[in-house]
């Protein structure tokens, strides 16, 4: 965080009420302001879907690199991707926030603005939350979604032998952005890599992609949060199947190769183990859903659950929480 | 936290999967285990109600005093009270957890067991969450409730002049328990004050009390979380009214007086400013709801929003987040 200008008060100075007022002003909702938020009447036959994700400064994001708006936007994408991955539509978010007393109120206003902008892309909104002092800046976001109709949600356990593995969105871009930021610092990352930096600091997932997949025959779905191999391995284990990826279908984009050459690393580490892209990985028995591409096949379970072109992947680690 | 026995692994040793397995074993739910949890089909005309509350060790709870089970139970009561205070029925909870690597897995198992026991009292369950390493033990709980029928929720802005102020549950008991723990330490608090200690470490709210209040004509409701005067002042401000409390109706119980005498403090500080009881305060235009007692009247707004017997209260501070 840059030092705040003289006129910018800290959360310790304005207190709980001041913090809440700043957040609500930047992310307004008619549903906010009470002990709890009442959501819209759900559509007939719809069910509520809920997910939560805690982001800690220094572990899940860095205010050295990311703007306040990006931190807010990333927290929403990470949570809404879990709702989309069920085939549901995100409709609301809650924010529980811990912030040191020295945090500038303008920073939290920026976080709320980023949340408002990203939830707005989904026609969703921030409906409530909690604020407290604490040693570390922490955002604990809960996403609430609506699952329409009677079809089951796209859980991790319904992939079957013979189905296609499909993907929506870029894979490995967030990890490439992280590597560039780590090497150069935000100000000095060459401009041509801006999309990789954004993929790390404020990843996007096209709203409605998960609903489309569910409507067109997808069976299982997850988001690429812990790394391609790790996330597909979790899905494969839960479904009792294997997954074979076609290397040509996930080959690193030219931009990734260029960044990797500059940093003298193998771009396949980013593609296979990167995570945090929050793009969608699914299996389907039907046509490839609109916006997705085929990247592999569901196979019979084997000792090596996830293979690339039939071989053990070159890299297979992923995000570690502890 | 007591040092773990030799055979008790830490979260750093068992990793994310081990932590999740321990939590799910202690708080099982068929809805858990995916990217997000799908809740039951809501009843016709029902709406989802959501609330979140973050509890940080050293600020909101102390593992020096509280057992793991109590920490889990308190986190649920704090959140479910916000759902009850809307007149809704709690049906599910999510837990986002940050824990240092040195945390014994058995402690988290205890937290989950406390959550399972308390949610079970409401026929609710822990349906999902997130775990991450972090410097501090933090529980960020989200509660999801169901609001039946077409009547409005009991928001803070519907108290009107001439209505009764009613309360369910003890007031000031949590603060008294805190003072005793602070003075004696858990082991040495005299046994006769056990109910006060429990009121602080694992407060309870009778399930369904909020639903009853809504069904019998309550207009506004909140829970006693920040202190009696502060919580009623918030309600009064939001409704544009005043509140006059009858001192005889909130006079400290004999047990509170006994504890106060022992510690040489005025028990009215606990009653008027204590908070954290998570009992219910409501206004009603009808009969006193079952389980509630009348403690005052809604008055016309005045410069002093909350009065006791028509006078400014002797103590009027409350919980401060920053």
UniProtKB/TrEMBL annotation, chains A, B:
Q: According to its UniProt record, which reaction does this protein catalyse?
A: thiamine phosphate + ATP = thiamine diphosphate + ADP
Task: List positions binding Mg(2+) 4.
Answer: 35, 82
Q: Kindly list the positions annotated as binding Mg(2+) 3.
A: 35, 82, 223
Question: What's the protein here called?
Answer: Thiamine-monophosphate kinase
| Keywords in alphabetical order | ATP-binding, Kinase, Magnesium, Metal-binding, Nucleotide-binding, Thiamine biosynthesis, Transferase
Residues that, per the record, bind ATP = 129-130, 225
Q: Name one GO molecular function term.
A: ATP binding
Q: Check the record and name the Pfam families matching this protein.
A: AIRS
Q: Which residues bind Mg(2+) 5?
A: 226
Q: Which GO terms describe its biological process?
A: thiamine biosynthetic process; thiamine diphosphate biosynthetic process
What does the entry list as the binding residues for substrate? Answer: 60, 276, 319
